[in-house]
Amino acid sequence: MLYRIIGNMTGNSMDAIDLVLTEFDGDKMNDICSYSKSYDKKMQEKMEQLRQLVVNKTKDEILSLPQFQAVHDEYIIQIADCINEMCQKYGIDKSTIDAIGFHGKTLDHNPPSRANIEGTLPYTLQIGSGQMLSDLTGINVVYDFRSAPLMNGFDGAPLVPPHNAHIAATEGDGCYYNGGNTSNFAWVIDGNAKVGADAGPFNEYVDNFIRQNTQDSFDIDGKYGKSGTLDKKLLQTFFDVGRTYYERSLPKSGDPQYYQTEKIFNAIKDCDVSFEDAVHTLEYFSAYIAVQALTLTDEKLKLPPYIILFGGGWKNPVVRESFDALINQTGYVLPDHQKAFKNFFDRFDVPIKVKYSDFGTMMEPRLFADLARYKLENKAWEIPEIVQAGKNVVCGEIAKPQKVKNFYIDMLNLAAKGWQNEK
Fold first, then answer.
1. What is the pLDDT of residue 117?
2. Potential cystine with 183: which of 199, 212, 253, 339 (Cβ 3.0-4.6 Å)?
C-alpha cells in the first residue's frame, strides 16, 4: 500500500524542528521534501530547565509543575506551525497525507537495561500531545512509540535499527551509525537488524560546552576543535566518569540525564587545558566511544566490513577525522582498550570502509514516518532484542483531529514514571 507520511524529530539538542515528507511503497522510500526550523535559545533554555525539573518524577508530579503546561504547549505549537509552513511552502494538500509520525521530546529515560542493575522500576518520559498536534494541523498523528517496547520489558531505544534494515535494501549490509545528541548503531546482516544499541553522548558534551563558553550553538565546521589537540589524560577522565555505562553489555540505551555532564565540565576546569584543547578532546571522545561500543558486539556475529554514517554530528570534521583514524587503527586508544580494539578489528578479513548514507540527511525524522507506517498497518516494529525474544510489539498511538480546545490528557507518554500503578 502507498503511504505519504510526514516524519518529525526534535532531538535532545533541541537545535531545530526537522521534518520530511516521505512516500512509502512497501519498504521502498522516497523523500518528497524536507523542512527545518531552528529553535531560539529561549526555547532551548526552557526545555533544558524543564528537563532538570522532571527527572525521576511521576506523571502527577510533572503535570503539577507550574511551568509544564506553558512549555509543552509552546513546543507543540512550534511543531504544528512548522508542519503548516512546510505544507504551504511546497503546496502540499493535507488531505493526501496519511499521518504525521511524531516522536515527542525525551526528558527522562530509565530503561530496563539500567533499571535492572540499579534495582529501580523502568520508565521513559516523552512529552508532546499527539492529539493537540493533530488538532492544530488537521492531520492524523501517530506518536508515543517508546512506551510499548518499554512496557513489554525492552529498552525502547534506539528505535532506528528496523529503519536501517529497510535502507539496507538500497545501501547494503553494514553498521548503520547515527551521530546525534546520543550516538547509536545497528548491525544489519543479511538484510535484518541483528544488534541495536546506544553508544553514549555524541553532541551532548561538546554542544553544551560550546553554548556555555561562546555565543555559538555548536562547534560550526569544527572551528574551535581544529585549533586544539587531544589531551590523553583528559580523555581517560572522560571515559572513567561514564565507565559503568560505556562498558555495559549490549543492547543498552542512554540518556543525557545520566551522562553526568557536570562532572565532565568540572574535570575540564580541574585540568590545565585551553578551551580549544578541551573542545578537541570532547570531539575525539565522541568518536572514541562510538568505536569502543562496537567492540562490545557479540563475537559470534560475522560482521560486514562497512559502516554507514547518518546524522548531523558526523559533519563536524574533528569528530569524523577522529572516527576515521580510530577505524583505520591510527588513532589514539586508551591503554585499557587496546586489546579489545585489536580483537575487534581482527574480526575483519578486509579493512572497514566508511561512508555517509545516501539517506542520511533526514534519517531521524524519516524513522518516525516509517514507524507511523507500521502502526497504520498494525505491524510489529522489528527491534532486534524483541525479535530475538520471540515477541511482537506494535509501537505507537493514533490521534485524529477533533478540534477540542481543552486539557490534553496525552501530554505525557503512557510509560512515564508510575505507569506500573496504572495498569
1. 86
2. 199
Give Cβ neighbours of residue 391 (< 8 Å, ≥ 6 apart): 152
**Is the CB of residue 178 less than 8 Å from the CB of residue 364?**
yes
Q: What is the mean pLDDT of residues 127-154?
A: 97
CA distance 76 to 70: 10
Write out the three cell numbers for 4: 505519504
Task: Name the residue type at position 205.
Answer: Y
* Cβ atoms 42, 75 nearer than 8 A: no
CB 277 within 8 A of CB 231: yes
Take residue 299 and report the three cell numbers written for it: 563475537
Q: How far apart are CA 96 and CA 139, in angstroms?
A: 10
Query: What would the pLDDT profile of 315-363 be if each residue is shown by its tens digit?
Result: 999 999 999 999 999 999 999 999 999 999 999 999 999 999 988 778 8
Which one-letter DSSP state was computed for residue 65? S
Cβ contacts of 367 within 8 Å, gap of 6 or more: 7, 9, 101, 159, 160, 163
Query: Does 405 score more than 70 pLDDT?
Result: no
Please write the tens of the pLDDT for every residue from 158-193: 999 999 999 998 899 999 999 988 999 999 999 999
Backbone φ, ψ for residue 243 (5° rounding) = -55, -40
Integer Cα distance of 91 and 235 in angstroms: 50
- Phi then psi dihedrals of residue 102, to 5 deg: -120, 120
**Spatial contact of 320 and 310, defined as CB atoms under 8 Å apart:** no
For the chain, the maximum distance between any two Cα atoms, rounded to a whole number of angstroms, is 61
352: Cβ contacts below 8 Å, ≥ 6 apart: 305, 306, 307, 327, 345
Cell of 380: 510489529
Closest CA to 138 of 103, 104, 90, 95: 95
